[in-house]
Design brief:
The complex is a heterotrimer of chains A (326), B (378) and C (378).
Chain A: E1 16-25, E2 28-38, E3 43-47, H1 54-62, E4 69-74, E5 77-78, H2 83-87, E6 90-93, H3 105-115, H4 120-134, H5 149-161, E7 167-171, H6 179-194, E8 198-203, E9 214-219, E10 222-227, H7 229-236, E11 240-245, H8 249-257, E12 262-268, E13 271-276, H9 279-292, E14 299-303, H10 307-325
Helix pairs in contact in A: 3-4, 3-5, 4-5
Chain B: H1 3-18, H2 21-41, E1 49-55, H3 60-71, E2 75-81, H4 84-92, E3 98-102, H5 106-113, E4 115-123, H6 127-155, E5 166-170, H7 181-201, H8 204-211, H9 213-218, H10 224-253, H11 262-286, H12 290-308, H13 320-326, H14 330-344, H15 352-372
Parallel strand pairs in B: 1-2, 1-3
Antiparallel strand pairs in B: 3-4
Chain C: H1 2-18, H2 20-40, E1 48-54, H3 59-70, E2 74-80, H4 83-91, E3 97-101, H5 105-110, E4 115-121, H6 126-159, E5 166-174, H7 181-212, H8 214-220, H9 225-255, H10 263-287, H11 291-307, H12 320-325, H13 330-344, H14 348-377
Helix pairs in contact in C: 1-9, 2-7, 2-9, 7-9, 7-10, 7-11, 7-13, 9-10, 10-11, 10-13, 10-14, 13-14
The chains are: A alpha/beta (326), B alpha/beta (378), C alpha/beta (378).
């Protein structure tokens, strides 16, 4: 899956603006001075571990939570001053599945069509569009409770776009959905974006960042990195990446922590990813270093970092700096 | 307010009600079960009061006296004991509420001094029954005494027709027979309607919060007033159906005389339903967990409606502070209204006062509910 | 197995306790209800507004009226001059009861014939009036008795007889010598509040997990159905004891209800009562798929339980069918236990049938619940 086509820059004005957003729940700071902008037609991904604050930010943008500080503007409207104005212009998918399980596919669509005031003349066509998009043709009368996870999510997306909102907020729409369905979902997002819809998607699958125009990494309520996938891979990593396949990953990992030139080391699947300052140098030096400890990796090669590498590294770095600050 | 959005909410609610047949069935069955159970079970008439007899003399006289008790429809002799401990056990076990003890020298003293007495041991834990039972016992004994006196006098050659000088003849206003049922049933209708109303709407919003559908709904342009009216509409219809069931049962099955007009009944019932459904809705808005809403709903409906509405316990006999509190008990007004419509044929002008209270209540509740519905997660 | 149960218990307790509002809802409502209903529930009537019409105006009629005037049960608010006046007074609800003595009353008395006293009752204020009727009966019966004695006396005196037949009845109130209505109702209110709250809590317990979806997770774990049910109900047993204890203490201290029995017997009886309530709530929980259904079922079931229990309406006055129904009502038995231990001081020797009945109900309902629960998992 490749990156999406770049957004149409003509006539652009930032559709979503967050400016120094803060949200506190009692003493707990859920959103800590977050600022970003999303352009029209852009697909922005929010990544980060669970509890990082992604949902909170989205909810603030939707007007569902009041920010404790800072400003948020959606479609040019100040969210805190006119939350109702925002609501007509957005589509929302909440993290917890929010459609009516005891209603059928059709009934849910008709309901949201009515709520969003989709003109009656158009409603039939829009519903058709949503059903086709979700692949639910022939199952219009099925109760939503009987649909599998992937179908439910696609239907939820369909309900969110019935009224052609210019902006979409999707909170972890691919959670708990199997990989094929996830890909399909992202295809849908791209086709919407190519029609000019601005999309903010949050996910905890790091690899899905590749599907976005830009991605923002949120950790502990703070935005610790933002940029296009290419930018992130280039600048954020702070080194070059080696792949090490070995029979004793635990021991090898421990040994590599003290190896020269090694900045960081982590387990990836059944291999190790090692961050080094100079790949060439390390490829030459490390095998000896390990051999001296009686470890003989099967294979060592330089690899292009994935976004997952980037994020893991960034989060680790962030954790380290928080520990120092504390 | 957009009618389209309102309609969407109402249609959705109807579909959801339809898809929960069990709750729907309960809502529709309740009038019948409750009317039958309460209609027959609730009674202020004391009949067949369980009596225990302890005849320590066992003579013709004592037996004659006990026969009077047997003949009385107020009493039902459940036990004839032979020992004092047995009597104590009967009272303790609540087998009887009153025990008639005839002393061993009953006839002797009657013959000697012409006067004798029996004892009524009352289980006064149920003070009301005890009091009334004693009153009836007094009447029964008086009847016996008169008979004995008459007997004695006629044996001495005097003629008297009758020495039961006076009877209490109760004629109840608007009714020929003193059937307390006619007064209880209208109250029962009010109570059932209050309970059904609470049951229908108290969880409607909380449910959506718990299921997660509310979060999506409040991210849409829908207005709180649209949600409220859209949701209450279908329940109002259900309420009408239930009310119709209850009232028809009252008039046709229990044969409570109906002297009012259907119009008055409809208007006042609708008003009451709005209050009842509105309060349930308000609770549901304020409390986002279903179990929480249910507890408060129960607190505000089940016991207050049955104990503070005047349908059983007379309000004017309660301590003043409590009487003031009953002004808040909305079912109180409907109890008054229903009784007046059925038994007095009251029309809307005559019911101006309780109707006004209900009107104020309905308005307050609706306004509060619309205001309290905040379209935010915190 | 005990490890798993303990785990569940800890989880349940933490959930219960952590919720601040949940804590509040467990403590405040019972106490508030106890105070309200302890004061409101009463069948004692005093100062019932009464109107009197004496069309006879003889010594006898005046004497009868005097008897009513001097009773603190009635409050004579109007001495009417005409029937129309009486009609108006009742119509306006200025008086709840009207006593009418027609012309010719004394004549009938002197002739030894039955003389009627007419009692009119305001249908809409009927409860007060109906209760008052009992006292009116008693007053009338005493007048009747005294008049008979007097008449006989005078007659005998005229004819030179010395004998006078008189049979009287004396009352011996047991356990509640002052006929204090609170002593009867407050224990009943304690029992009822416990019923309503515990059944509600338990009914929601299992359903909640089913509806929110966590039930599946639990069922996938190695826990067995019986263990799960135990884990769910034991916390509510503790909470139930807490609630019952709380309202009992408040009842005793605030209302000064005497407690002459054995506290252990009471505690034991309460425990069995709670078990039966838990079993009932559990059964409701296992037959309902959503909390809304559990809520509706609550109203459906609890209201009749509360009404047909002997709490306020004597079981002996109900039709036979309903009396039989009360045999499966745990409240019926517990009322005997609580009133018995509070006011009569009776022990297990007398109470064992009631304790056994509650235990049996608990066992049967529990068994059905566990069976149903197992079935629903397949």
């Amino acid at each position: 899956m490749t990156s999406p086509a770049p957004p149409d820059q003509a006539g652009n004005s930032d559709q979503v603006i967050a400016d120094d957003l803060i949200k506190r729940f009692g003493a707990f700071v859920a959103v800590d001075h977050v600022s970003f902008r999303i352009a029209r037609g852009e697909v922005m991904g929010f990544l980060g571990p669970n509890g990082a604050g992604k949902s909170t930010i989205i909810r603030i943008l939707c007007g569902l939570l009041r920010a404790s500080g800072g400003r948020a503007s959606v479609a040019g409207i100040d969210v805190s001053r006119d939350p109702e104005g925002v609501r007509q212009r957005i589509g929302y998918m909440s993290q917890k599945f929010s459609l009516y399980r005891d209603l059928t596919v059709e009934e849910n669509l008709r309901f949201f069509g009515g709520i969003y005031g989709v003109p009656r003349a158009e409603l039939g066509a829009r519903m058709r569009f949503a059903i086709d998009m979700a692949g639910l043709g022939g199952r219009e009368r099925a109760l939503v409770a009987t649909l599998a996870g992937g179908w439910q999510q696609r239907l939820a997306l369909g309900c969110a776009v019935l009224h052609r909102p210019p902006i979409l907020f999707l909170d972890e729409p691919t959670s708990g959905v199997e990989p094929a369905s996830r890909r399909r979902f992202w295809d849908l997002i791209h086709s919407l974006a190519s029609d000019g819809v601005t999309v903010l998607v949050s996910t905890h699958y790091m690899d899905e960042a590749e599907y976005c125009h830009r991605a923002a990494l949120i950790n502990h309520g703070r935005l610790i990195a933002i940029g296009s996938p290419a930018q992130l891979k280039q600048t954020a990593l702070g080194g070059e990446l080696l792949l090490v396949e070995c029979d004793a990953p635990g021991a090898t990992l421990a040994a590599l922590q003290d190896a020269p030139g090694v900045r960081d080391c982590s387990v990836f699947g059944d291999a190790l990813h090692v961050l080094v300052g100079d790949a060439g140098k390390s490829l030459a030096e490390l095998p000896e270093f390990l051999a001296a400890k009686g470890l003989r990796p099967r294979r060592m090669a330089r690899i292009a970092p994935s976004l997952e590498d980037v994020f893991v590294q960034l989060i680790a770095a962030d954790a380290a700096s928080r520990r120092e600050a504390a | 307010m957009k009618i389209r959005r309102l309609k969407a909410i109402a249609v959705k609610e109807i579909l959801q009600i339809w898809r929960d047949p069990r709750s729907l069935m309960i809502a529709l069955l309740m009038p019948f079960t409750q009317m039958f159970l309460l209609g027959y079970g609730v009674t202020l008439d004391l009949k067949h009061i369980p009596v225990c007899t302890f005849d320590r003399e066992a003579s013709q006289n004592s037996q004659a006296l006990l026969k009077h008790f047997e003949a009385s429809s107020y009493f039902a002799i459940v036990r004839n004991v032979r020992t004092y401990p047995a009597l104590t056990a009967a009272i303790d076990r609540a087998d009887c509420k009153i025990a008639i003890v005839i002393p061993p020298d009953f006839s002797e003293r009657l013959n000697d001094s012409g006067s004798s007495s029996v004892q009524a041991i009352l289980d006064a834990t149920d003070d009301n029954t005890a009091n009334i039972a004693f009153g009836y016992a007094l009447a029964v004994v008086s009847g016996y005494a008169a008979e004995v006196a008459l007997d004695a006098l006629s044996r001495q050659g005097h003629q008297f027709q009758q020495i039961q000088p006076m009877t209490v003849q109760s004629r109840v206003w608007f009714n020929e027979d003193l059937e307390s049922r006619n007064f209880i049933i209208p109250g029962v209708v009010a109570v059932i309607m209050a309970l059904i109303g609470a049951q229908l709407t108290s969880l409607t919003i909380s449910r959506e919060w718990e299921r997660g559908t509310m979060e999506l709904l409040i991210s849409t342009p829908v207005k709180p007033s649209e949600v409220m009216i859209g949701k209450l509409g279908p329940y109002l219809v259900l309420g009408w159906i239930d009310a119709a069931f209850c009232l028809m049962l009252a008039a046709l099955w229990f044969e409570v005389p109906f002297r009012g007009t259907i119009l008055t009944l409809f208007v006042t019932t609708t008003l009451f339903l709005i209050v009842v459904l509105g309060i349930g809705y308000l609770l549901s808005v304020l409390i986002r967990s279903q179990i929480g809403a249910s507890q408060i709903a129960l607190l505000l409906t089940m016991l207050p409606t049955t104990l503070l509405s005047g349908y059983v316990f007379p309000i004017d006999q309660m301590p003043m502070a409590i009487q003031d509190i009953t002004y808040l008990v909305y079912s109180r007004y409907y109890v008054t209204i229903i009784k007046a419509i059925f038994l007095k044929g009251a029309d809307i002008p005559a019911l101006a006062a309780p109707i006004l209270f209900l009107l104020v209540y309905a308005t307050a509740v609706m306004v509060l509910a619309a205001r309290a519905f905040r379209k935010s997660l915190d | 197995m005990f490890g798993r149960i303990t785990n569940m218990l800890i989880k349940e307790f933490i959930q219960l306790w952590r919720d601040k509002w949940g804590r509040f809802r467990l403590i405040a409502p019972p106490v508030i209800q106890l105070l309200l209903f302890g004061y409101a529930a009463t069948f004692e009537v005093y100062h019932v507004p009464t109107a009197v019409l004496d069309l006879d105006r003889t010594q006898e009629s005046r004497e009868l009226v005097a008897r009513f005037t001097s009773s603190n049960r009635l409050n004579i608010v109007r001495r009417a001059q005409t029937q129309d006046e009486i009609d108006a007074v009742i119509d306006r609800s200025d008086a709840a009861v009207a006593l009418v003595i027609h012309a010719g009353f004394a004549n009938l008395l002197r002739k030894g014939e039955t003389a009627p006293l007419q009692v009119l009752v305001d249908g809409t204020n009927s409860n007060t009036a109906l209760i008052a009727l009992g006292y009116i009966n008693t007053i009338a019966a005493r007048f009747s008795q005294d008049y008979a004695a007097d008449l006989a006396q005078r007659t005998l005196g005229i004819r030179g007889m010395t004998e006078l037949i008189q049979v009287t009845i004396e009352q011996r109130p047991w356990y509640n010598p002052d006929f204090n209505g609170r002593w009867f109702f407050v224990p009943g209110v304690i029992a009822t509040i416990t019923l309503v709250m515990v059944v509600n809590l338990t009914a929601f317990a299992v359903v909640r997990e089913r509806e929110v979806g966590t039930l599946e997770q639990i069922m996938v774990s190695p826990i067995r159905p019986a263990e799960f049910i135990l884990g769910k109900t034991v916390p509510f047993f503790v909470v139930g004891m807490g609630i019952a204890g709380l309202v009992t203490i408040v009842g005793i201290l605030w209302f000064q209800i005497p407690f002459v029995g054995n506290p252990l017997v009471f505690v034991f009886g309460t425990m069995i009562y709670l078990l039966s309530l838990l079993a009932l709530g559990l059964l409701i929980s296992t037959v309902c798929a959503t909390q809304q259904q559990a809520f509706a079922t609550n109203f459906f079931v609890v209201n009749p339980l509360f009404t047909l229990s002997g709490f306020s309406f004597p079981i002996s006055s109900m039709p036979d069918v309903l009396q039989w129904l009360t045999y499966i009502n745990p409240l019926r038995y517990f009322l005997v236990v609580i009133r018995g231990t509070f006011l009569k001081g009776i022990g297990v020797g007398i109470l064992w049938p009631d304790l056994l009945a509650m235990a049996a109900i608990a066992a049967v309902l529990l068994a059905i619940s566990i069976l149903r629960f197992r079935k629903s998992l397949e």
